[in-house]
Amino acid sequence: MTARGLSKDLIIKEAMGIAEKDGATAVTMATLARRLAIKPPSLYNHFKSLDEIKKAVAITALNEFLHWLEESMVNNVSGKEAIHALSKAYVSFAQEHPGKYDCSFLAPNPLDQEVQTAGEGIVQLTMKTLSDFALDEVEKVHMVRGLRSLLHGLVDLERRSGFQLSVNLEESRKVVVETYVSGLEKFD
Predict the structure, then answer these.
(1) Are 148 and 126 in contact (CB under 8 A)?
(2) Are the beta carbons of 87 and 95 closer than 8 angstroms?
(3) I need a labelling partner for 47 at 20 to 30 A (CA). Which of 20, 28, 72, 144 fits?
(4) What pLDDT digit, counting tens, does each position of 112-168 carry?
(5) How far apart are CA 25 and CA 99, in angstroms?
(6) Separation CA 188–CA 132 (nearest Å)
(7) In this predicted model, what pLDDT tens digit does every residue of 79-119 receive, in sequence order?
C-alpha cells in the first residue's frame, strides 16, 4: 500500500483491527504504520497525533457498540425483557469484540464533546429500557449507572479469569439482572 491510498477511514479500520487482534493498547503509530506498510510520518497527514487516532477509534467503537445494542431491541421489547435483551447484548458485544469494547473506553479525553456525544447514545438507549418503571430522571441516572457497572464488572471479571466456579456465566448474568429488575419494580 502506498501512502497515496491512505485515508482516515482506513487508518481507523486498521486500528480497530489491531485492537481486536492484539488489544487496544497495541494501537500505536509504529504498529499502525507497520500494518499499513507505510512510514509513521504518513499517518500525520491524516491525524495530528496518536491521541487523535485513539479518539476517532473510540468514537467508532462507541457507534458500533450502540448499533449492536440497538439490534438487540429490534423486536420492540419493553420493561423487564428490554433490560434482559440489552444486558445480554452488552455482554455478547464485549465477548465477541473485546478489542472494540476496549476501544470504546480508549479516548484520551473521555470528556471530549465528540466522545461524550457518541457515548450518549448508549446512555439514552439504556434510559429508554427503564421507561416502563416508575423512576424520576435522577433515579434513572442511578439505575443506568448501576446496570452499566454491573455489566462491565461481569465482562471485566470474566476477561481476567475471575470466575473459576463451574456455574454458567450467562446464567449468572440472568440471575443478577433479574435481581436488578426486582429492585426496579420496587419503585412502582
Answers:
(1) yes
(2) no
(3) 20
(4) 999 999 999 999 999 999 999 999 999 999 999 999 999 999 999 998 888 888 888
(5) 9
(6) 9
(7) 899 999 999 999 999 999 999 999 999 888 989 999 999 99
pTM: 0.90
Rounded CA gap, 112 and 103, in Å? Answer: 15
Which H, E and C letters describe the chain, residue by residue?
Answer: CCHHHCCHHHHHHHHHHHHHHHCHHHCCHHHHHHHHCCCHHHHHHCCCCHHHHHHHHHHHHHHHHHHHHHHCCCCCCCHHHHHHHHHHHHHHHHHHCHHHHHHCCCCCCCCCHHHHHHHHHHHHHHHHHCCCCCCCHHHHHHHHHHHHHHHHHHHHHHHCCCCCCCCCHHHHHHHHHHHHHHHHHCCC
The three grid cell numbers given for residue 84, joined into one nine-digit string: 434482559
